[in-house]
Amino acid sequence: MDTEAELPKRSTARHKCVACYKQFKRKDHLIEHMKISYHSVHQPKCAVCQKLSKSFESLREHLTGPLSKAHCSGIFSDRGCNLCMNIFDSPSSLIKHKEACSLSAPVPFEKTLSNAESQKKISGAIDEKRTCRGPKAVAMDCEMVGGGSNGTLDLCARVCLVDEDENVIFHTYVQPQLPVTNYRYEVTGLTEEDIKNAMPLKEVKDKILEILNNGESTGRLMLDDGKARLLVGHGLEHDLDSLRMNYPDHMLR
């Protein structure tokens, strides 16, 4: 019995990321996570536990999703705004806030246009008249739906590129590579019907690169004096990752 008592206990300590709270069995795995996660103070943050999320959709899942944290979810349900995801000191403060923060679900892009414009804008064709003028920069935004068992995996379902004058160059629905489990309609305005016959991801990627490279060879993309275009956007690393794309860091803004 003394021998059994002297046996060392196996350590079960786990190493936790202080930003996103992911846990790792080994410290070197945590270090590797910190190197590639690029956590930022600008990421959406839970006002209860201070956990950082990759996107507002992820924060929404953390607070209201099927696997939400009970403590955070309880406080948010009492004093949280479902639109801006902020939490207030009291229910009365929340009521006052909602008077100014009242937005309806987004109207799908094509429904704000005439039928002719809709087909042109959402067809997935590149507007050659816009690209041939040679804008030096192109802005891109992707709309994400949810995949995975709890709908928190970001899947690109729509992408739009505009030039420096905000003219649409390329706009299309994207066929997600995994089954969609949450269309996040209140944020995206997307439905199953929208992406039923959407453009395959590889074709979308090729068209975007055609616009960005602007006829420049791959070898010259790293040069500052080439014809390739600057890519502008918010959270571009996340969008490029969802599109399975790479673009030189010095060309991103």
TrEMBL record:
Domain C2H2-type per the UniProt entry, residue ranges: 15-44
Zinc-finger as UniProt keyword: yes
An example Gene Ontology molecular-function term: zinc ion binding
Pfam family, one: RNase_T
Keyword flag Plastid: no
Alphabetized UniProt keyword annotations: Hydrolase, Metal-binding, Nuclease, Zinc, Zinc-finger
Protein name: C2H2-type domain-containing protein
